[in-house]
Design a protein that fits this description.
CATH class of the largest domain: Alpha Beta
Strand content: 5-15%
Number of domains: 2
Largest sheet: 6 strands, parallel
Mean pLDDT: 78
CATH architecture of the largest domain: Alpha-Beta Barrel
Number of strands: 8
Order of helices and strands: HHHHHEHEHHEHEHEEHEHEH
Helix content: 40-55%
CATH topology of the largest domain: TIM Barrel
Distance between the termini: 70 Å
Radius of gyration: 26 Å
């Protein structure tokens, strides 16, 4: 653009501003019609505005947008909240997400994960195996003392779908007693190993005050031979949505396999989700956690 043409743009700036402000309602409508969880970026701004114009005027729309925000030393534009070009609905709640960890506590990896969560100021829910809590009570107590939730994952990581309700309930209650003995109380939060539970078992547990939790996003961190830390990060980030529960493991239920992939991937996952606007909550604090539990795709309603 020549110097003369550039100056001419500012000569007609008043007319350009008037034209652009005539489109403010259309642009505002385009913005507010977007999914509240999709985020709002500079790229989205261009897409929203150009979508508001017919194809032949899209370049003009971009130029008008740039000129509008350039400003002028000799001219001040005072826009009231009602007349601003872009009005975002800041009352919309931020998307929430919950991190959960199964099969611990572990004498090595649980402590590493707790350190990361503390540094990132994130609270999580740990579904712990009863026999391991009995073996590592100090680690179990540390989970609780650092503001996380200690929840029930059976006494021995057994498949309760293959048990009668009486046997399953006995197994779960033995775990509850261990939780009570270590931290002083239990919230009656339960996750069945492998997500396997019969519908009648879930219904019966509900009558005894238990809440059953599954997950929406499986990090696959247990499959250490198949998934690298990078792949774990990629699966979680691309799979996560508002009010999702993410499944991680802070131990191998047999106590034999490494969980370093989880340790490496976790801080990256937290940073990326936070940058996308997510607020971290415990699984039991999500608003629709019951619905989440009942709609998981691989739940065994046998």
């Amino acid at each position: 653009m020549t110097r003369v043409n550039f100056i001419n743009c500012f000569t007609y700036r008043g007319k350009i501003l008037k034209l652009l402000l005539n489109y403010r309602l259309r642009i505002r409508k385009l913005i507010l019609s977007q999914d509240r969880d999709s985020g709002f970026t500079t790229r989205n701004l261009y897409v929203f505005i150009t979508n508001g114009f017919s194809r032949q005027f899209r370049n003009l729309a971009l130029v008008l947008t740039v000129i509008f925000f350039i400003g002028c030393e000799k001219e001040t534009i005072n826009l009231t909240p009602e007349s601003t070009l872009l009005t975002l609905n800041t009352s919309l709640p931020a998307p929430c997400i919950a991190l959960t960890f199964d099969d611990g506590p572990d004498p090595a990896y649980t402590g590493m994960i707790l350190k990361i969560l503390k540094e990132k100021n994130v609270k999580a829910t740990f579904f712990c195996v009863g026999n391991k809590m009995k073996k590592y009570p100090k680690i179990t107590k540390r989970i609780f003392d650092e503001g996380h939730t200690v929840a029930n994952h059976t006494i021995d990581h057994s498949n309760i779908a293959n048990k009668s309700f009486k046997d399953a309930f006995t197994n779960i209650m033995r775990t509850e007693k261990i939780i009570d003995s270590i931290i002083g109380s239990s919230q009656k939060l339960f996750r069945p190993p492998w997500g396997k539970i019969k519908k009648e078992q879930k219904d019966s547990l509900s009558k005894y005050g238990f809440k059953v939790f599954l997950w929406n996003v499986n990090s696959k961190d247990f499959a250490i031979s198949k998934y690298s830390p990078y792949m774990i990060v990629d699966m979680v980030i691309h799979g996560a949505q508002n009010n999702d529960i993410i499944l991680f493991h802070d131990s191998d239920y047999k106590g034999k396999e490494s969980r370093m992939s989880t340790v490496i991937a976790l801080p990256q996952i937290i940073d990326i989700l936070r940058a996308k606007g997510y607020v971290f909550k415990k699984a039991e604090d999500l608003t629709n956690n019951n619905k989440i539990s009942e709609t998981k795709e691989n739940l065994l309603w046998e």
